[in-house]
Every structure is written in structure tokens, then in C-alpha cells.
Amino acid sequence: MNILVFASRKGGSGKSTLAAHLGSYMAEQSRPTLLIDGDPQGSLALWHQVRDARDLPLYVGTKNLAATLAKARRDGVEWVLIDTPPNAEAAVAEAIRHANLVVIPMRPGLFDVDAVQATIQVCRELKKPYAVVINAAPAKNGSDDPMVKDARGAMQALDVPTWAGQITHSPDLSLSLAHGTGVNEFSSKSSGSEEIGKLWRALARSFEAIEGMTGKHAQSA
Ligand SMILES: Nc1ncnc2c1ncn2[C@@H]1O[C@H](COP(=O)(O)OP(=O)(O)O)[C@@H](O)[C@H]1O
Ligand SMILES: [Mg+2]
């Protein structure tokens, strides 16, 4: 079972947005997925309520996280997506402790680049694989926008693994959520849908690599 935690101390970076879109993408692929809304603000739960569908089970809260995850494993869930609040509460560290991979969404911008460092620190302390995902970025014009280039440079200087792609700022991404859908369902041919698909494939590859490092192969090597 792969546990993906969306974390960042910066509110508005895109944790709930990416969790919902990736959740919807998983539902489309009919992969057994569990969403966990660990943020008392309840954005992911609200989206789920609007969605009104049973293709994506949702658990609200992280109080009994270990038990919830154990049950999910018994039920044959393949993917768990956990949304977390933008604070430094113990619940966020607890979610990260259970993660196989932590996704840190980051808007390109000075304040955002500065703010992710606290979350990176927690991942490093807990020895958890993590990756920054640049979100709500200006559209590419042949190459990365200067804002994105700057943000990538800052991450590189800090030796922070950063997804080579980007999620571009797009009204489709917020509009689709208001309808309880993901962008893949709302406008399947859009660039937003394509980007979420690319992110998904990159995450799946990362899980395979992590599994290779920590799983049977590494132990028998
Ligand atoms: N790539 C994007 N394009 C357009 N709007 C976005 C994008 N990512 C996030 N948003 C919008 O920004 C706001 C904050 O995003 P949200 O996912 O709630 O952040 P967080 O969960 O990290 O606080 C929401 O209104 C969301 O719709
Ligand atoms: Mg949120």
C-alpha cells in the first residue's frame, strides 16, 4: 500500500487541490484508493461531499491514523492520499511518519520557497522521501517561466528533490473542484488534465524506486 502525504506549512500552496485531482485520477483508473482529510478546515471532505460518489472512500481526521491505515491495508487499498493542515502540529508529523512519500506543493515565489523549508526539515528528520511539486506556475512558453526557473534554482541549491514538471495555474483546476470532479473528468483534454496525469506517473515511478530501495530487492541484495 502506497501512502502519499500532502504537506506544507504554507496555506494555499495546493495540498488539497493536488490531493483531490490525483484522487479523481485514481478513481478513473479504478485503483482502490482511500482519501484521508487530516485538515480540520475540511477542503478535501467538502470536495468529496460535492462529488457525492462512492468511487473514492474518504476518512476524516487523523486521530486513529495507524488503525485507519491498518484497516485500509486489510481492505486491499492500494493508494492512500492524506491531506494535512498548514501548521506544525503533531498530527502533520504523525501523517508524515506513516508516509512512503511526502508531496510538498510549492507555488513559485520568494515567500513560498522560504516556507517549504520547514516541511522539508521535518521530512529529513523523519527520514522520509519527499518531493517538491511546483504548483500554480505561470504557463510554460517553450521553457520554464523565469519564476519557475528561480524556484527550481533555489530548490537545487538546497538539494531538494523537485518534480521536473509543473502544475500550471489554470481556472480548470479550481472550477472542476467546485463540481466535485477532478480536471481529468471535467476537461479531459485540457493541459491541466495532462499535467495531473504526468504528475501521477512521476509519483508512481517514485514509489517503484522507493520500493526498490526499501523493499525485498534491497533486503535480498
Ligand atoms: N494549479 C492551480 N491553478 C489554479 N488554482 C489553483 C491551483 N492550485 C491551487 N489553486 C487554488 O488555490 C487555492 C488554494 O489551494 P489549496 O489546494 O486549498 O491549498 P492548500 O490546501 O495547500 O491550503 C484554492 O482556491 C485552489 O483552487
Ligand atoms: Mg488544504
Account of the 3D structure:
- This protein is an alpha/beta fold and 221 residues long.
- The protein has one domain: P-loop containing nucleotide triphosphate hydrolases (Rossmann fold).
- Helix content is 50%, strand content 15%.
- It is built from ten helices and seven strands.
- A seven-stranded parallel sheet has the order 3-2-4-1-5-6-7, with helices on both faces.
- The C terminus is likely disordered.
- The chain binds adenosine-5'-diphosphate and magnesium ion.
- Magnesium ion (MG) binds next to helix 1.
- Magnesium ion binds next to helix 1.
- This is ParA family protein.
- It holds the Pfam family CbiA.
- Tally of domains: 1
Would you tell me the structural class of the helices and strands? alpha/beta
Broad CATH class: Alpha Beta
* CATH topology group: Rossmann fold
What low-confidence regions span 5 or more consecutive residues with pLDDT below 50? 217-221
**By CATH's scheme, which homologous superfamily applies?**
P-loop containing nucleotide triphosphate hydrolases
Round the mean pLDDT to the nearest integer and report it.
93
Can you summarize this structure?
It holds the Pfam family CbiA. By secondary structure, the protein is of the alpha/beta class.
Helix and strand topology:
Blueprint: E1 2-6, H1 15-28, E2 33-37, H2 43-51, E3 58-60, H3 65-74, E4 79-83, H4 90-98, E5 101-106, H5 110-125, E6 130-137, H6 146-157, E7 167-168, H7 171-178, H8 183-186, H9 191-214, H10 216-220
Parallel strand pairs: 1-4, 1-5, 2-3, 2-4, 5-6, 6-7
Helix pairs in contact: 1-2
The structure holds adenosine-5'-diphosphate and magnesium ion (MG).
